[in-house]
Task: inverse folding
């Protein structure tokens, strides 16, 4: 029996083989995962971790797929999605959410309950686990601003709780987080007027609709913000707005985004990333750092 048969025996119909990652990433492109499962309990996570160790196969953790580009040749090993871990609970000062909960749903819940501190994160199209993993942020707020602690297991299945002050973090960076699988996070928030918070949330959502190409598949900001500047400004100033490779295009609405406007292949998008970096480097002498994560194998 190989690892795929063992996965199917354990998860039944919840184990998908050769599952197209285009269905699970916001770029809406990408090759197949060898195996795709959605663990929902400690027992299920422990089984997958032990199986991956036994067979020495790669294990990839997937949230909403809103910050990844998967190569057309797909992903070897097991993709574990957190989609079935989406519970949210709250009290008078805290919200706790499992890793697979939508970050935007947590923001909406906080505003409705009169808990302030996350309203500017509204509309970020990712999971709580993904937001903690990269310290996602927008409009002056970051995930770690109101994060109190997050629960994890390591790759051997041992549980731990990491408090914010114990973890080195900064702009789109959390040190050492790759050594863990994030299970849930707790946010400490401040009591505020629900009507005012909802107004702030709605303004944030409107700004996103006005400024970002949400009508096309994309994965958000492609590059990290360089020191004392903006990637979108540098790309725009280099004259790259509207630049295309195959079905991929630098958005004309927001130059910091690459959109899949016409059945782009992963290789189209990756090549466009490369060209943008090269041309900005040539004109401005600044090496843009990729914010998005490349997964799997790409066609040459």
Result:
């Amino acid at each position: 029996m190989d690892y795929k048969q063992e996965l199917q025996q354990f998860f039944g119909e919840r184990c998908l083989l050769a599952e197209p990652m285009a269905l699970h990433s916001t770029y809406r492109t990408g090759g197949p995962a060898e195996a795709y499962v959605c663990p929902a309990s400690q027992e299920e996570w422990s089984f997958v971790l032990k199986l991956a160790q036994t067979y020495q196969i790669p294990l990839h953790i997937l949230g909403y797929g809103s910050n990844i580009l998967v190569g057309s040749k797909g992903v070897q090993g097991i993709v574990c999605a957190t989609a079935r871990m989406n519970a949210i609970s709250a009290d008078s000062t805290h919200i706790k959410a499992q890793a697979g909960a939508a970050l935007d749903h947590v923001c909406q819940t906080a505003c409705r309950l009169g808990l302030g501190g996350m309203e500017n994160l509204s509309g970020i199209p990712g999971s709580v686990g993904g937001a903690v993993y990269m310290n996602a942020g927008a409009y002056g707020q970051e995930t770690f601003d109101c994060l109190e602690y997050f629960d994890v297991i390591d790759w051997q299945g041992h549980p731990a709780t990491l408090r914010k002050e114990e973890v080195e973090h900064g702009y789109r960076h959390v040190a050492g987080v790759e050594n863990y699988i994030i299970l849930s996070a707790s946010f400490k928030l401040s009591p505020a007027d629900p009507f005012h918070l909802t107004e702030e949330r709605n303004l944030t959502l409107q700004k996103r609709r006005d400024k970002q190409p949400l009508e096309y598949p994309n994965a958000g900001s492609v590059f990290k913000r360089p020191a004392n500047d903006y990637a979108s400004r540098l790309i725009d100033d280099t004259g790259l707005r509207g630049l295309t490779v195959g079905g991929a295009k630098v958005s004309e609405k927001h130059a910091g985004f690459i959109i899949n406007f016409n059945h782009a292949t992963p290789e189209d998008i990756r090549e466009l990333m490369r060209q943008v970096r090269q041309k900005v480097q040539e004109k401005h002498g600044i090496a843009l750092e990729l914010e998005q994560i490349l997964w799997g194998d790409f066609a040459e």
